[in-house]
Design a protein that fits this description.
By secondary structure, the chain is an alpha+beta fold. It has a domain of 83 residues. The protein has four helices and five strands, in the order H-H-H-E-E-E-E-E-H. The protein has a five-stranded antiparallel beta sheet, covered by helices on one side. The longest helix is centred in the first third of the chain and has 124 residues. The chain starts with a helix and ends in a 17-residue tail after the last helix.
Amino acid sequence: MNISHIAKFAALSMVLSPLASSFAQNSNNQVEETRSIIEKWVETRQLMSKEASNWREQKEIMSFKINLLKEEIKALEQQIADSRKDVNLADAKRAEMEGEENKLRTAAQVVKKEVPRYEQNLLRLSKSFPKPLLDKTGSLLAQIPSDPNKTTLSVGERVILILGILNEVDKFNGNVTVVSELREIDTGDTVEVKTLYLGLAQAYFVDSNQQYAKTGSLIDGEWAWTEQNEYAHDIWSAISMYENVIKPALFIELPITIN
């Protein structure tokens, strides 16, 4: 190698040396920068993974809460529907009760209007009650107000009186009744007799000597008695059979008055 070549190489080395140094320095900087970028990228990925995990957990919690709220809303909607149904039923029941109340009020007005008429009819009919029936209904008849407009009894109490009297009348009219009583005969004497009532349709009485007998029936609201002494024995026998004095029972013909 000649001196000129050496000189050129030395000059080139002087030129490249700073460039190589600069290149090496730049390479180190790039490595550090790359490392920093990678670390930040890893950190970012980790943060994103953590956020994604947290989001999945939150999503599950939110989904659970949403489903729970949906169930609560469904239950509330059912309660509201049931409440509306109950309200509708209550309204229908109230309307029905109001209708019944109106009917009862109307019926009460009719009863209030008719009660005095029934009371007066019973007082009039009671004048034809035989003594046994009068004994059973007398206390009830005495409570009927003489003046319907001046009474402390309620309509309900007056209706109960009427029903009580009618019940006793119905029982008497559907049964056979035998009583002992004093009666004045055609001679003017008062004798003890036994009277047989076939309800309110027919009656017979006879004295204990079986010598005096009469048959009776209601005519125009009053008891009319007809002397029929020829039936005295038969009437006495009928009464004795009713009282179980005569056994066995016999078939006995008695006169009947048909009005």
